[in-house]
Amino acid sequence: MIYRELVRLLHPDLNPDQTAVEREWFQAAITTYKAGQLQDLALLLEIVQLNSQAAEQHEVVMPIEDLQEQGDHLASKIDTLQAEIDHIMSSFPMYLADAFQDDHYITEQVLRIQQQTTRLMAKRSQLLTDLAQMGWVQHD
């Protein structure tokens, strides 16, 4: 029964517009039937039926080798994207993301900025004093 259904779906005389993959499936059906591999025959029928349904919906079911190749290609792209993400996360300013959530780090940075500001204000004041001693008049 399974073999007859496969022949009906795949025989070149009944399906003159079949694809190369369908021709391969037909040859596989003959070989599998002659070997008495009914489970493999049932699996092949399932694949052919899925392909027929997909064709009716204008989709293409690819051979397993092509799907594996696409899967490998996608896995490679995922690895590449993950490497790019890792690079971005380790670059400025992303490497500071964890630090910005650390209250101790933020407190240290605020203190450091306040100290630098105090030093710069003192330096400015000293420079203005030096300029005034040289006769420079500040215009506001």
Mean pLDDT over the residues: 87
Succession of helices and strands:
HHHHH
**What's the domain count?**
2
In terms of DSSP E residues, the strand content is under 5%
- Please give the number of β-strands: 0
Helix content bin: over 70%
Oligomer designation: single chain
Distance between the termini: 101 Å
Can you offer a commentary on this structure?
The protein is mostly helical. The chain has 2 domains: 2-65, no CATH class; 98-133. Helix content is 72%, strand content 0%. The chain contains 5 helices and no strands. The chain has helices at residues 2-10, 20-35, 38-56, 64-89, 103-133. Helix 1 (2-10) runs antiparallel to helix 2 (20-35). The longest helix is centred in the C-terminal third of the chain and has 31 residues, at 103-133. It starts with a helix and ends in a 7-residue tail after the last helix. The mean pLDDT is 87.
In short, what is this structure?
72% of the residues lie in helices and 0% in strands. It has helices at 2-10, 20-35, 38-56, 64-89, 103-133.
What distinguishing features does this structure have?
5 helices, mainly alpha, rod-shaped, 140 residues
How would the blueprint of this fold be written?
Elements: H1 2-10, H2 20-35, H3 38-56, H4 64-89, H5 103-133
